[in-house]
Design brief:
Chain lengths: 271, 208
C-alpha cells in the first residue's frame, strides 16, 4: 500500500546529477557573495572617519540604502495607508487585544530561544505566559499573565546567538522587513522554523487562520509604529542612519538584558 | 587587662580606619543617586503638570521651554551630537549650530509630548552610568503602551542637568550624533550643509 502523502515525489535523481546541482548552487552562491562584497565601500583612511565607519558597521551601505528607499516607497503606498485605515476603523482596545494575541502566539518561539540562551527562568516565564494566556486569556486576546506577574519579554534567535557571543556581522536593511544584520537575518529564518504555526496541517481552517494571523500581525505591528516612524522621518536629517543607529543600540540593549538576567530557577524558600 | 583593652581599641581604630574609605564612597554614591532621583522626580512633576494642563499646544510649548533650559544641558548635548565635526567647526558655525540645535531639540520634545493629557510617571530606580547617574522612569500615556525611559543626569556643570534620555535601549544623543555624522559625511564633510538643513527643518516646523 502506498502512502497517501508525497505520492508525486519523483524517484531520487542519480548521484552525478546531484553533484552537478550542488556545483551550480555553489557557483551561484559564490557569485552572490562576490556581488555583495563588490558593493562594500572601502573603509576610509582618516582615523576619526574610520572610527565612525566602524561604529556604523555598515559596509554594504549603498546597497542597504537602495533597499531602504524601495521599502519606504512601497510602504508609503501599501502598508502605511492600510495601517492608518486599521487604526481609524478599529478601536484601541480591540487593537490591543489583537496585539496581545500576536504576542501570545509567538510565545513558543520566545520559549525555545530562552532555552537556547540557557535562561531557564525566562523560559519558564514564556511557558507560563503561553499556558495562562491561551486558557484564561481566551486564546491570547487578554494578557492575563501580565497581571499575574509574568510580563512579556522579547527573545528571538538573533538575540540567542548574541548571548552565545556570535557577533552581529554587518548591518543589513532587508526589503519590506526592515533593519537587520547578518546574524539577525539568519535568526529570523530560525524563528520561522521554531514557530509551531508553520507546521499546522491543512484542513480544519488552520491554514486560513495562520494566513489571517500573519497578515494581521504585520498590519498590527506597522500600526504600532505609525507615529514613531512618521516623526522619525520628519525629525531626522538622515532617517536611514537614524534607524540604523536606533536598531543597533536596541538589539545590543536587548541582548544585554538577557545576559544580565541571573534570576534563579529554584523558589526563594529553597535557598 | 588594661593592655588587652587598649589593644582592642587600637584594633578597632585600625579596622575603622580601613573601613572608612570603603564606607565614604558608598555614602557619596547614595547621596548622588538620591540627588539625581529627586532632580528627575521634580523635573518630571513640573513637565507633566504643564502637559496635563488645559492650555493650548502653543501655550504648553512656551511654558516648557524655560523648564527645559533650566533642567537640560542643551549645549553639552549639542556638542556631543556634532561629534568630531565640533572641533572642525569655526566659532561662528559652533554658535549658529548651538542656537539651531536648541530649537530642534525643543521642537522634538514638545512634538513628542504635545497633545497628551492624563500622563503619569513613576521613578523606579537609580544606577550609576559612568560618572553620571541613570534614573529609570516609567511613563504612562493614555491609549499608548507604557514607555520605560532612562534619564542620564550629570553634575559636571556644577548642578544636576539631564544630558541624555534613553528609551528602550536607544540613547537619544547617540542616535542624533549618528544622524548628523552620516548627514555631514554624505555632504563631503560640510558643516554649512548641516546648518542649512537644520535651518530648513526649524523653518518647516514653524510653518506647521
Amino acid at each position: 500500500m502506498r502512502a497517501v502523502t508525497g505520492s508525486n515525489i519523483p524517484p531520487s535523481p542519480p548521484s552525478a546529477f546531484v553533484a552537478r546541482l550542488r556545483r551550480i548552487a555553489l557557483v551561484t552562491a559564490g557569485l552572490g557573495v562576490t556581488a555583495v562584497a563588490g558593493c562594500a565601500a572601502p573603509p576610509p583612511k582618516d582615523p576619526e572617519a574610520l572610527a565612525e565607519y566602524r561604529e556604523a558597521n555598515d559596509p554594504y551601505e549603498s546597497l542597504n540604502r537602495k533597499m531602504y528607499d524601495i521599502s519606504m516607497t512601497l510602504d508609503k503606498y501599501s502598508l502605511r495607508p492600510v495601517a492608518k485605515a486599521y487604526v481609524w476603523a478599529v478601536p484601541y482596545r480591540v487593537r490591543q487585544s489583537l496585539g496581545n494575541m500576536v504576542q501570545t502566539m509567538n510565545e513558543p518561539v520566545v520559549f525555545f530561544n530562552d532555552v537556547g540562551a540557557g535562561k531557564s527562568r525566562r523560559a519558564g516565564d514564556a511557558f507560563v505566559r503561553w499556558c495562562v494566556n491561551m486558557v484564561a486569556g481566551v486564546g491570547g486576546l487578554i494578557d492575563v499573565a501580565k497581571y499575574a506577574g509574568y510580563p512579556h519579554h522579547d527573545n528571538d534567535a538573533g538575540l540567542t546567538m548574541a548571548t552565545w557571543g556570535v557577533p552581529s556581522g554587518p548591518y543589513l536593511f532587508l526589503p519590506m522587513m526592515g533593519p537587520s544584520s547578518f546574524r539577525d537575518g539568519a535568526g529570523y529564518g530560525i524563528d520561522v522554523g521554531l514557530s509551531p504555526w508553520n507546521y499546522v496541517p491543512s484542513g480544519y481552517g488552520l491554514l486560513t487562520f495562520n494566513w489571517a494571523y500573519n497578515i494581521m500581525g504585520v498590519i498590527n505591528g506597522r500600526a504600532d509604529h505609525l507615529d514613531a516612524l512618521d516623526q522619525l522621518q520628519k525629525d531626522a536629517l538622515d532617517p536611514y542612519a537614524t534607524i540604523r543607529s536606533a536598531y543597533q543600540q536596541q538589539r545590543k540593549a536587548q541582548a544585554e538584558a538577557i545576559g544580565n538576567d541571573h534570576r534563579a530557577t529554584v523558589p526563594d524558600w529553597y535557598n | 587587662m588594661k593592655t588587652v583593652l587598649a589593644r582592642r581599641h587600637v584594633l578597632g581604630l585600625v579596622a575603622g580606619a580601613l573601613a572608612l574609605p570603603a564606607v565614604r564612597p558608598a555614602r557619596a554614591a547614595d547621596a548622588a543617586a538620591a540627588g539625581a532621583r529627586s532632580f528627575v522626580t521634580d523635573f518630571g512633576r513640573q513637565l507633566i503638570a504643564i502637559v496635563n494642563s488645559d492650555r493650548t499646544l502653543a501655550d504648553k510649548k512656551a511654558a516648557i521651554l524655560p523648564l527645559l533650559q533650566a533642567h537640560v544641558d542643551m549645549d553639552e548635548i549639542g556638542r556631543y551630537c556634532l561629534g568630531r565635526y565640533w572641533r572642525a567647526a569655526t566659532p561662528e558655525q559652533q554658535a549658529r549650530y548651538l542656537a539651531l540645535f536648541h530649537q530642534v531639540l525643543v521642537n522634538s520634545i514638545t512634538d513628542k509630548i504635545g497633545d497628551y493629557r492624563g500622563v503619569t510617571f513613576t521613578v523606579s530606580g537609580t544606577s550609576p552610568a559612568g560618572g553620571d547617574q541613570a534614573v529609570d522612569t516609567i511613563i504612562n500615556r493614555p491609549e499608548q503602551p507604557s514607555a520605560n525611559t532612562q534619564w542620564i543626569v550629570s553634575t559636571t556643570s556644577g548642578q544636576p542637568k539631564v544630558v541624555d534620555v534613553v528609551g528602550e535601549g536607544t540613547s537619544l544623543r547617540l542616535t542624533q550624533r549618528q544622524d548628523y555624522a552620516s548627514f555631514v559625511a554624505r555632504h563631503n564633510g560640510s558643516i554649512d550643509a548641516l546648518l542649512h538643513a537644520m535651518d530648513h527643518q526649524v523653518a518647516a516646523h514653524g510653518a506647521q
